[in-house]
Amino acid sequence: MKFDTPATTNPIDRMRVVGQPHDRIDGRFKTTGTAPYAYERHDVAPDAAYGFILGAGIAKGRVAAIDTAAAKAAPGVLSVITTLDMPQLPKGKTNTAALFGGPVIQHYHQAIALVVAETFEQARDATSLLRVDYAPEGGGRFDLAVLAPSAPPVPGDSGEGSGGPPEDRTGNFEEAFAQAPVKLDETYTTPDESHAMMEPHASVARWDGDHVTVWTSNQMIAWGKRDLGITLGIPAEKVRLDSPYVGGGFGGKLFLRADAVLAALGAKAVGRPVKVALTRPIMANNTTHRPATIQRIRIGAGRDGKITAIAHESTSGDQPGGQPETAVSQTKLLYAGANRLTAMRLAEMDLPEGNAMRAPGEAPGLMALEIAIDEMAEKLNLDPIEFRVLNDTQVDPEHPERPFSQRQLIRCLREGAERFGWDKRNARPGTRREGRWLVGIGVAAGFRNNLLQKSGARVKLDAQGVVTVETDMTDIGTGTYTIIAQTAAEMMGVPIEKVVVRLGDSDFPASAGSGGQWGANNSTAGVYAACVKLRDEVAQKLGFNSADAVFEDGQVRAGNRSVPLGEAAGAEGMVAEDAIEYGDLAKKEQQSTFAGHFVEVAVDAATGEVRVRRMLSVCAAGRILNPKSARSQVIGAMTMGVGGALMEALSVDTRRGFFVNHDLASYEVPVHADIPHQEVVFLDETDPMSSPMKAKGVGELGLCGVGGAVANAIYNATGIRVRDYPITLDKLI
Ligand code: MOS
């Protein structure tokens, strides 16, 4: 189904099942431990052997030799595969650093050997017996602050986000900035961050002849299938990936990783299934991370508070051939201003690969921009909400002929202000004290684009009237199973209990996958398309005019005839498959999601300890398909925002080139005790430009801007402006 004109009224608008706060249909499996994760697939590979990965102990250089004799002689060992056994394996289309093969070390903890044994303990023990001779190379590039001044501008397209060129100019920024009576020129920094999802990367591989099946934990099944085929040098048709349950990803599982490649190689070598997990200590350096940024922001405004000039430049690093963090993308769209400049620079580095982590671009970009906006408001003696309202724009500021399809930022801020008690905020920082605590509140705008991706699904109807949906879409803890069931139930006019959802198998139609908060809208729109086709086929079979057929209460009706769906399907059942495909609607109108984030903090006046007291996010993100699972997404994102503001940072050893804190004991994320009451409000919105579902994403919006709101609240509490994340207590005393 081609979606190229705005959505009109359709069966989803009935909102009998869609839009209801339905419990997760997979919730019981998860809470009872019966949802099998990749490492637990004993059902498909009861005879699996265990593989253990050795990561490189240097960041740059070569492996000269690996002595495997002791490991091979260790109890239970079935095979030892080293990176010297083969040339560097071809890289898939999505990874920058190679995953295995050849002597060259591109980054610390790059996989250089796999030991396969009868048990996990035997494999781990034998791995410790491998003797590696390295030929380290000097000149490792590990310190972004040192590299940034000579980092070149990024050529070509800026990738995810708004997709503009590296240096975008509108009007004449320099001239307008020079003339502005009120101006700001500050630099903000964000650190490297790790996805730190609960379920580590894990795979079980089994060969059947020249076909390989990999039960794995991956967000993007079609990418993974393609890239595993490329890496193993076999046609994609001979690769099957299956990932029905994913214990979190946050972008770390968008790509093929070493666990899947090495499980496949190990299984081939020993002639039986092999399972491989990335253990927690090697995840931070073996996989991808959100790269650190250095962001310079300049804003000029008239005394009336209107922005006349705005510039945002970001520098980040990556492996050779990698991409910049698109931290300037929201600055192209969020505030008005006639004279604009955005640019990115990319430093080649020898740290592990930088790549997407939840809301790549906007998440670190807004951590900087929303402090800058708070600072400008203060310089102008304006309330920070009023300053944002004054500089709202209903059109793309770089292309004024393009309106936003929906933009309710002002309502998000106003409604949030009222609910949060913004009028009680004292604009003078450091003036509210409760005993030893300095108390402050802060606000930030939230912004994240809505991206449209082709997404397919198959829908079956059986003689019992059961509707089964199959798509390679994944549920990474987001609630996909449930919103897809709701969509199919609404479309076919059956209760949700009559819908079975099967996800994550590459034998199913290819979907948009889970990334960039595009999963919910696109994957349900794909199910919508397949259901439209199935409805047409049912109507046709019964001799109904398709436009007259009403699907309701498990029946299909037209005129005065009513047929139970199961009867219509007959003994053989019926099946329809289709995909949603998008025309160029997104070019005509800018599709984005908006939020107002509010945070209250208390800061210990003596120690600088920050406690978050209250949080509220008001979101405008199209139709909310399930307010319960959407709220869960947003409170999880708000929690990640607190982590980014106060705790999360990979510490770089700039001499040896690795992330030092590579476990959950030293890479700090918020725990329950750190997070107070969180409130989430969704504004009423339907966006007919986004898809027939009229929905958008919220999973990343809930993070975007939260860090800035925390920083602004800390400033309001203490009068100390910290521009370097995370805001740890040493920066406040
Ligand atoms: Mo998201 S970083 O695209 O999983």
TrEMBL record:
Gene3D superfamilies in the record: Aldehyde oxidase/xanthine dehydrogenase, a/b hammerhead, Aldehyde oxidase/xanthine dehydrogenase, molybdopterin binding domain
SUPFAM superfamilies hit by this protein: CO dehydrogenase molybdoprotein N-domain-like (SSF54665), Molybdenum cofactor-binding domain (SSF56003)
Keywords: Oxidoreductase
Enzyme Commission number: 1.2.99.6
MF-aspect GO terms: carboxylate reductase activity
Domain of life of the source: Bacteria
Domain Aldehyde oxidase/xanthine dehydrogenase a/b hammerhead: 32-138
Family annotation (SMART domains): Ald_Xan_dh_C
Alphabetized InterPro entries for the sequence: Ald_Oxase/Xan_DH_a/b, Ald_Oxase/Xan_DH_a/b_sf, Ald_Oxase/xanthine_DH-like, AldOxase/xan_DH_MoCoBD1, AldOxase/xan_DH_MoCoBD2, AldOxase/xan_DH_Mopterin-bd_sf, PaoC-like
Disordered: annotated segments: 148-172
Record keyword Oxidoreductase present: yes
Protein name per its UniProtKB record: Aldehyde oxidoreductase molybdenum-binding subunit PaoC
Organism field: Roseomonas elaeocarpi
Gene name of the encoded protein: paoC
